[in-house]
């Protein structure tokens, strides 16, 4: 009887899960039909589909024309987004299951459902990393925040692969924590579909892995990346050169994507120098923190990895606010540390920050957005979350890196020693 009940429960859970997935996909499909968009998904979907169906390189002029025709209903003007494929060729393998769906709106809907599930998994993993003990109510609020804040909704609406990259990074961290180093290397290699997001993180992980003598992480990453590149060369021998040409062209038709470029728009006379100053300070801080993390345990590694991801958004590497979804676990770590170390005061800080980062950031977007054919976000949106996290991560640094006793207990102990 117990055996049958167990299978009945499993069957019920499976049917319920499938129902939820189908319901989400239907809602996303209706949204896609009524709200044309998916500007980050369409070039990759068309590029992957053209390659699978015709063998055409996703970087070719013919594929670019097809992307632009679907994007604008015509060829793009020189002053418009050129809608190029841009990503490394092996991204085709990631998008292939969705590219096999001939209806773009349905493919986008399935992709959006995948991204929604990914955001929830990223948040749950962030809670696991922090060891945050949450009531059902607080868990619900954290998950609502994870799926509804500006820096999650933007990549979701645009259907950006950054959410998948964030999930792969999270998977790599989970693998490192459980010492599944081969998987960690594989996840990091796959995350290079958006190399600007992970370049500094991967460099830190490899250096830390060598210091810990966990060389499997290094060889797994290098081996899997080499395999992805080699397989790509079999299909399109000169894809690296084609990709580089599109990457070089990318800044010419996109909005400002680094602090220096943004500062030059605001204060042209000194903007470039301000950007250089921010880069120098952050690079120097990264070198200091990386050195401090060598040979340290996973908790120290995790804090430094989160700091690296945060610094990457402001260090001068071209980025977009869609990529900020990778910072969600770092934000959860800050919230959890406040709650665990400061009690009621910490929970108050969490609530205030929750409101500011949810409603405050949405208000800032709506107050500063420029309306045209498409809403254009203000460059100010590049700063709220990274600046908040740089302050928050350094606020909790002592607690995270020296977790044996809460800070207040250590201060009391030192006070007793002085007495």
Name the structural class. Answer: mainly alpha
Which runs of at least 5 residues are low in confidence (pLDDT < 50)? Answer: 410-419
Report the β-strand fraction as a percent range: under 5%
> Helicity level, as a percent range?
over 70%
The tally of domains stands at 1
How are the elements arranged and paired?
Layout: H1 2-34, H2 42-54, H3 61-72, H4 91-99, H5 104-130, H6 136-148, H7 150-157, H8 162-177, H9 181-190, H10 195-211, H11 215-235, H12 239-249, H13 259-266, H14 271-293, H15 298-312, H16 328-368, H17 384-395, H18 397-401, H19 407-418
Report on the structure:
This protein has 419 residues and is an all-alpha fold. The protein has one domain. Helices cover 73% and strands 0% of the residues. The chain contains 19 helices and no strands. Helix 13 runs antiparallel to helix 14.
Give keywords.
mainly alpha; disordered C terminus
In brief:
By secondary structure, this protein is mainly α. The protein is 73% helix and 0% strand. It is built from 19 helices and no strands.
């Amino acid at each position: 009887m117990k055996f049958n009940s167990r299978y009945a429960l499993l069957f019920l859970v499976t049917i319920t899960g499938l129902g939820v997935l189908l319901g989400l996909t239907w809602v996303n499909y209706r949204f896609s039909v009524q709200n044309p968009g998916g500007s980050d998904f369409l070039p990759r979907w068309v590029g992957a589909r053209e390659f699978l169906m015709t063998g055409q390189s996703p970087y070719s002029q013919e594929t670019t024309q097809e992307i632009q025709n679907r994007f604008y209903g015509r060829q793009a003007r020189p002053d418009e987004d050129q809608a190029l494929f841009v990503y490394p060729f092996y991204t085709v393998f990631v998008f292939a299951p969705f590219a096999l769906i001939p209806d773009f709106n349905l493919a986008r809907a399935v992709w959006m459902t995948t991204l929604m599930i990914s955001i929830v998994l990223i948040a749950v993993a962030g809670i696991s990393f922090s060891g945050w003990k949450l009531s059902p109510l607080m868990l619900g609020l954290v998950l609502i925040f994870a799926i509804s804040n500006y820096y999650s909704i933007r990549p979701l609406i645009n259907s950006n692969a950054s959410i998948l990259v964030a999930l792969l990074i999270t998977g790599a961290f989970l693998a490192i924590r459980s010492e599944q180093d081969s998987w960690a290397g594989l996840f990091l290699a796959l995350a290079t579909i958006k190399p600007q997001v992970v370049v500094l993180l991967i460099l830190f992980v490899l250096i830390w892995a060598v210091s810990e003598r966990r060389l499997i992480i290094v060889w797994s990453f290098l081996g899997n990346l080499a395999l992805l590149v080699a397989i790509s060369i079999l299909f399109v021998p000169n894809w690296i050169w084609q990709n580089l040409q599109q990457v070089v062209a990318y800044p010419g038709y996109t909005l400002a994507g680094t602090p220096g470029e943004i500062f030059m728009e605001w204060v042209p006379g000194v903007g470039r120098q301000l950007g250089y100053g921010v880069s120098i300070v952050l690079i120097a801080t990264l070198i200091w923190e990386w050195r401090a993390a060598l040979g340290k345990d996973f908790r120290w590694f995790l804090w430094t990895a989160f700091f690296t991801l945060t610094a990457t958004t402001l260090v001068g590497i071209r980025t977009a606010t869609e990529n900020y979804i990778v910072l969600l676990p770092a934000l959860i770590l800050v919230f959890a540390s406040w709650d665990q170390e400061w009690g009621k005061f910490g929970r108050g800080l969490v609530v205030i920050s929750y409101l500011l980062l949810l409603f405050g950031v949405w208000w800032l977007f709506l107050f500063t957005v420029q309306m045209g054919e498409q809403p254009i976000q203000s460059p100010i949106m590049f700063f709220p979350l990274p600046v908040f996290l740089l302050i928050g991560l350094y606020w909790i640094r002592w607690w995270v890196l020296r977790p044996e006793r809460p800070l207040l207990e250590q201060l009391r102990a030192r006070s007793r020693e002085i007495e």
